[in-house]
Design goal:
Blueprint: H1 18-33, H2 64-84, H3 114-144, E1 166-172, H4 181-192, E2 197-200, H5 210-220, E3 224-226, H6 239-245, E4 254-256, E5 267-271, E6 278-283, H7 299-313, E7 318-323, H8 340-348, E8 353-356, E9 362-365, E10 367-368, E11 388-390, E12 396-398, E13 404-408, E14 430-434, E15 447-455, E16 458-466, E17 488-492
Parallel strand pairs: 1-2, 2-3, 6-7, 7-8, 8-13, 12-17
Antiparallel strand pairs: 1-15, 4-5, 5-6, 9-13, 9-14, 10-11, 15-16, 16-17
Helix pairs in contact: 1-2, 5-6
Length: 551
């Protein structure tokens, strides 16, 4: 329309009230029709003389200026209505004005497209749901073991494989110093396996930094129970520092020996505290820095006898002794450094297990006993077959028939050689041997500990060994388990026992037929010693008994 300002034809927001605009148009039209004659202009009327009737009014003519003003006002109203009906405003706020008018458009508020906002909300919800599902799946897999846990990750909750009817523990001696990866790895694996506590059998790191050694070991497995060794961790060395840095960690009461400081030297405890399944007796026999006399009838030996007897009287099923130094061995240190009297006393008292270190080898003995025909299991005399109650070539021993000795000084320090060629007369007392130079399986030797599971009726044991420098950054053993020496055995009250597994041991060894080398031993194709579960069969279903002998 001519004379009108340019109109913004883009979409506008808001709702147009057409009724109100129509009413405004009607009012404007009425105003146009009812407009009066402006002042200064008068209509002329001619009255005839004598007429009594008022003459008829002439048509009113509006000035051209007034017509233009009304027309212009009408045009402005129409223009405003069309502006309100125009296109919606875009996302950029702006103001538009009408030419020759002081009327301005209202400020346009930008609005987001509802479709974009909905899509964004949906994408966020899908992403959050995906993350939640992934986290839940990862937690389930982690708990079930599909994601293997790191034994060095001490942030994970500490769990124990124990209940009202069983418990577990690990044992080893002769550890590497602070930072030794082999020692840290065996503690990490014991933690992962859920051991209730760890029995450290002396030679605790060969270091004067007792605090550093205890701190790094307890970070992995807090329940470390210690006994003095011969590396300086004794009365003349810094054993008191080890006792302070690795204090007694269990809830079971600890009872000190006669005239001793107790924990770390000579003491006993029952485990678990309620309804104990085993009594542990820890001794400092044969240590150069600890002047304890363990000869027959000495106060310390009498204390040991009374402690074993009181456990039997209390109905505790098992008695386990722990000493740093050994007696019988085919390792480097012979001639019973523990002391022959205290060793024979433990065997005569039918202690079920004697756990020792000192020699850096692994050895498992046959079940030993003293009798009228065997008054002493003497380390200096020739092998005496009558001292053997049962050989453990099949990995199972009857409870109460004698004592089994386990030498396990393979905590990470180094290896000693083991004489399995028949040059050591004590070889006849052993079923399994592992040293630096050879072992009775012809496999790789390894550092580690022995895991024990204790119930009222049985003690089951298996080794957890890893070759030197084969512990990964997360504590796991990187070697193939089938290539590493592995042993397992059990002591049980059950009758009619049959092999729980073939233990890859040297078989039935006598003084007349010593084992000449590990490679000469035949291997049963069905055996897998470390991994096969125990099997106890009735006598009617027994397989033929097979023994392996050296050639």
């Amino acid at each position: 329309m001519k004379g009108m300002a340019a109109i913004d034809r883009r979409p506008r927001t808001g709702r147009v009230d057409f009724r109100e605009r129509a009413r405004a148009l009607v009012r404007t039209s009425r105003k146009f029709r009812a407009h009066d004659t402006p002042s200064g202009r008068e209509r002329k009327s001619h009255l005839r003389q004598g007429d009594g009737v008022e003459p008829r009014a002439r048509a009113v003519r509006v000035k051209p200026d007034s017509d233009n003003e009304l027309l212009e006002e009408l045009r402005k109203s129409l223009t405003w209505m069309k502006a309100l009906e125009g296109p919606k405003a875009d996302r950029i706020p702006r103001q538009a004005s009408i030419a020759d008018s002081d009327i301005k458009e209202p400020r346009r508020i930008p609005r987001k497209r509802p479709e974009t906002a909905i899509l964004r909300r949906r994408a966020g919800a899908v992403l959050a749901l995906s993350l939640l599902i992934a986290a839940a799946a990862g937690w389930v897999l982690f708990q079930k073991g599909a994601v293997q846990k790191s034994p060095f990750d001490n942030a994970q909750p500490r769990w124990k494989d124990e209940s009202a009817t069983h418990f577990t523990f690990a044992a080893a001696g002769d550890f590497g110093g602070p930072g030794n990866n082999d020692s840290l790895g065996l503690l990490g694996r014991a933690r992962t396996a859920g051991m209730s506590f760890f029995l450290a059998l002396g030679d605790l790191g060969y270091t004067t930094d007792a605090s550093g050694w205890c701190t790094q070991m307890k970070r992995l497995l807090p329940e470390i129970v210690i006994v003095a060794g011969d590396d300086g961790s004794n009365a003349d060395g810094n054993m008191s520092q080890y006792v302070a840095s690795c204090p007694y960690p269990l809830s079971s009461p600890m009872v000190a020996g006669n005239g001793t400081p107790g924990y770390g030297y000579e003491y006993y405890f029952d485990y678990p505290r309620e309804k104990p399944l085993a009594r542990f007796i820890l001794l400092s026999a044969g240590l150069s820095g600890v002047d304890y006399n363990y000869s027959r009838k000495s106060p310390h030996t009498e204390w040991v006898e009374d402690t074993v007897a009181s456990a039997r009287d209390a109905g505790i099923p098992w008695v386990i002794a722990g000493v740093h130094k050994e007696c019988i061995t085919v390792g480097n240190d012979g001639h019973c450094p523990m002391g022959q009297d205290i060793f024979d006393e433990l065997v005569e008292a039918h202690v079920d297990l004697i756990l020792v270190g000192h020699d850096h080898v692994y050895e498992r003995s046959k079940q030993l006993r003293v009798s009228s025909s065997c008054e002493s299991v003497n380390s200096t005399n020739p092998f005496e077959p009558s001292c053997v109650a049962a050989n453990g070539t099949q990995g199972v021993y009857p409870k109460g028939e004698g004592t089994i000795v386990v030498v396990q000084g393979v905590g990470g320090r180094s290896f000693d050689n083991g004489a399995i060629d028949g040059s050591d007369r004590e070889l006849g007392y052993f079923d399994a041997v592992m040293g630096a130079n050879a072992n009775t399986q012809g496999r790789l030797s390894g550092f580690g500990s022995v895991f024990y599971q204790v119930t009222a009726d049985s003690i089951a044991a298996k080794t957890d060994f890893c070759p030197p420098d084969s512990t990964g950054t997360e504590g796991r053993c990187t070697s193939n388990p089938s290539e590493v020496f592995a042993d397992r055995f059990a002591i049980s009250t059950a009758t009619g026992l049959e092999p729980m597994s073939y233990t890859r041991a040297s078989g039935l060894v006598s003084a007349a037929s010593p084992v000449s080398s590990a490679a000469s031993l035949p291997q049963d194709p069905n055996q897998n010693g470390f991994d096969q579960q125990g099997i106890l069969l009735p006598r009617a279903e027994r397989p033929p008994l097979r023994l392996w002998t050296g050639r």
